[in-house]
Structures are given as C-alpha cells and as structure tokens.
Design a protein that fits this description.
Blueprint lengths: L1 E4 L4 E4 L21 E6 L3 E7 L4 E7 L16 E14 L3 E13 L5 E12 L4 E11 L2 E2 L4 E11 L2 E18 L4 E20 L2 E12 L2 E14 L3
Antiparallel strand pairs: 1-2, 3-4, 3-15, 4-5, 5-6, 6-7, 7-8, 8-9, 9-10, 9-11, 11-12, 12-13, 13-14, 14-15
C-alpha cells in the first residue's frame, strides 16, 4: 500500500524501512509493528522489527561467503549480529536523533566478538534529510583507538527515486617498513570512504545501488559496487 508524505509531497511505501541510507542508520526508525528484510550483494541478510515507534531491533547473518565455496578455505566462520536502535524526535519531521549498537560474533570461532556503538542526528524528514554521526567500534573485546565519523544524505530526485550518499572518516593503524633503518614504523592514517547511488521505490519494496570508493590519504584503496533489495514483511 502506498501513502503520501503530505509535508514533502513525496510518495513512499508505508511499510518501507527508511531508517538507514545504504547501511548507516539515520535518526528515524521503523514504526511500531513494521518489519523489513534487506538483502545486500546476495550474501548479507538483515531483518528489522519496530517494537515501538521509537525503538526497533534487528539482526543479520552472512551464511556463506565466497571463501566457503573453495575447498582449500572451507570452514570460514559466518558473521552474525543484532542491532537495537532508539530513535528520538526532537522536532517532529525536522530533527531526530538516534543511538544504537551493532553487536556481532563469528560463528565457528570462540571469543571473536565485534561491533559498534553509535549516535546520529538527522535534519529533515524521512524523504529528504542529512545526517551526521559518530561511533566507536570494537573487536576481540578491545575498543578501537579512534571514532568513526559519518555524514550521509538522501534527496528525492523523482516521484519514486531518491539520491543517496553515505561517507565515512576513520583513523586506522598502518605499518611501513623502512629499509634504511631496517625498522617497521606504525602510525595512524585517515581513511575516507565516499559513496553515491540511487534508491528506487516499487509497489512491494525498494532497491538501492551505488558505488563506494575508499581513499588512504590521497590514494584510492579500493572500490566496491553496492546493490540491495528492501522488502516489507508486515501484512
């Protein structure tokens, strides 16, 4: 079923999850009783449920990886996670904040925990908005030395199409070997990740696609295409 956002004039799917961009959460969440399924790049499976209008909980799994398909690398652990999220409206449909966590582990390995706690503030409504956020990640029961900063935005560019950008900045340790002194020097380097893409809305859900590009300093580290499908599960 479709409904109209009267304030923006946009048409959106009533039961569509608008609580995140590509991956990064924003200040909005699912409404009470809503549930969604998201599949990303075929391997990432994520479910979310709105416990109330301001609190949702989700979980996900990567049940199989490319490495699992290769006999020589058989047995690579599968990541699983849960992600509770609290959304708080400061000014309805104008300013929202959220706090949440992603807590995961690797099935098949003991003591391999990983995750993140985060917060974000979103300016705008569900259709057109911009968010800034920060978070701290942890792995193997140790917190990372530096926070992750994010800045993301979504903008309606058609009746059922939105432009999305999702960007990260984080300091990561890097090691370089110095032949002149025969020493390995470790230092922190800023890594930035930029992304651009589109979200298309259909009768039974939505799909998003885009491209992520990571830079280490001024050098391109890698590029990654993105494609995901969002399906409402609420009857």
């Amino acid at each position: 079923m479709e409904s109209t956002d009267k304030e923006s004039g946009a048409v959106y799917i009533k039961k569509l999850d608008t609580g995140n961009y590509f991956f990064v959460p924003n200040g909005y969440g699912l409404r009470k009783g809503e549930s969604t399924y998201q599949n990303t790049l075929l391997w990432f499976h994520q479910f979310n449920y709105g416990v109330s209008d301001h609190f949702s909980i989700g979980g996900g799994v990567i049940p199989i990886s490319i490495a699992n398909l290769l006999p020589i690398l058989y047995g690579v652990p599968s990541p699983v996670w849960i992600n509770p999220k609290l959304s708080i409206p400061i000014i309805k449909d104008e300013i929202n904040i959220s706090v949440g966590a992603i807590a995961g582990t690797l099935l098949g390995e003991k003591g391999r925990d990983l995750g993140m706690v985060y917060s974000s503030i979103t300016l705008g409504n569900r259709v057109n908005n911009v968010s800034v956020g920060t978070g701290y990640g942890y792995a193997d029961r140790q917190w990372l030395n530096a926070p992750v900063f994010t800045m993301s935005s979504v903008l309606k560019v058609g009746k059922k199409c939105q432009f999305i950008t999702e960007n990260y900045m984080v300091q990561l340790p890097k090691s370089d070997f110095k032949p002149s002194t025969n020493e390995t020097v470790t230092y922190d380097q800023w890594t930035t990740v930029f992304s651009l893409g589109l979200k298309g809305i259909k009768k039974r859900g939505a799909y998003s696609y885009g491209l992520f590009v990571a830079f280490e300093g001024k050098k391109i580290a890698f590029g990654l295409p993105w494609f995901s499908v969002h399906l409402p599960l609420t009857l």
